[in-house]
């Protein structure tokens, strides 16, 4: 999943970016509201974390502008502990949740995970699809109750497809959502990851979890969970 982090405190920005990357997210950062608006407008994100007290363009105005531009990805607003009005203003502007500083990284990660799941119509952290099961909180995968070991990017690709079952996703879209803005979108890395996933999830080609639609992309096949 690809995130936008807009925070002008560079030490906090670096700390949060490191924690989010360690948790498996791809993170683009911005140090002021104008840069945040440019990135939030130009790139596809699965969620954004926006501080209220930003230079050049404050966080509330940034959120309002993104919503006016029909950017519907979940947004968490960061506020100072004693500024309760900022929490209300952030939610009224279009934010989906808020955190007050200082906060624990575990809480931020849990809230992000929940917001991204719910925006995809998935309430539970565990996605079950026939013999395939993913725990989006722990990034664990099972097929027929057997644990499957995936690399970070293999998991990111599978999770994105699992959150959008039966939806065809192009290689470009998949690349944009699992890598940051500096990645080469012409790379054939998605094809490589799909081949690896097929070998690990379905070595006997019994289920055909990931379908290829020539010239369009890939989709995750939906199975009956009964």
From TrEMBL:
<feature type="domain" description="Response regulatory">
    <location>
        <begin position="2"/>
        <end position="116"/>
    </location>
</feature>
<dbReference type="InterPro" id="IPR011006">
    <property type="entry name" value="CheY-like_superfamily"/>
</dbReference>
<keyword id="KW-0238">DNA-binding</keyword>
<dbReference type="GO" id="GO:0005829">
    <property type="term" value="C:cytosol"/>
</dbReference>
<keyword id="KW-0805">Transcription regulation</keyword>
<feature type="domain" description="OmpR/PhoB-type">
    <location>
        <begin position="124"/>
        <end position="222"/>
    </location>
</feature>
<keyword id="KW-0597">Phosphoprotein</keyword>
<feature type="modified residue" description="4-aspartylphosphate">
    <location>
        <position position="51"/>
    </location>
</feature>
<feature type="DNA-binding region" description="OmpR/PhoB-type">
    <location>
        <begin position="124"/>
        <end position="222"/>
    </location>
</feature>
<dbReference type="GO" id="GO:0032993">
    <property type="term" value="C:protein-DNA complex"/>
</dbReference>
<dbReference type="GO" id="GO:0000976">
    <property type="term" value="F:transcription cis-regulatory region binding"/>
</dbReference>
<dbReference type="InterPro" id="IPR001867">
    <property type="entry name" value="OmpR/PhoB-type_DNA-bd"/>
</dbReference>
<keyword id="KW-0804">Transcription</keyword>
<dbReference type="InterPro" id="IPR039420">
    <property type="entry name" value="WalR-like"/>
</dbReference>
<dbReference type="Pfam" id="PF00486">
    <property type="entry name" value="Trans_reg_C"/>
</dbReference>
<dbReference type="InterPro" id="IPR001789">
    <property type="entry name" value="Sig_transdc_resp-reg_receiver"/>
</dbReference>
<dbReference type="GO" id="GO:0006355">
    <property type="term" value="P:regulation of DNA-templated transcription"/>
</dbReference>
<dbReference type="InterPro" id="IPR036388">
    <property type="entry name" value="WH-like_DNA-bd_sf"/>
</dbReference>
<protein>
    <submittedName>
        <fullName>Response regulator transcription factor</fullName>
    </submittedName>
</protein>
<dbReference type="Pfam" id="PF00072">
    <property type="entry name" value="Response_reg"/>
</dbReference>
<keyword id="KW-0902">Two-component regulatory system</keyword>
<dbReference type="GO" id="GO:0000156">
    <property type="term" value="F:phosphorelay response regulator activity"/>
</dbReference>
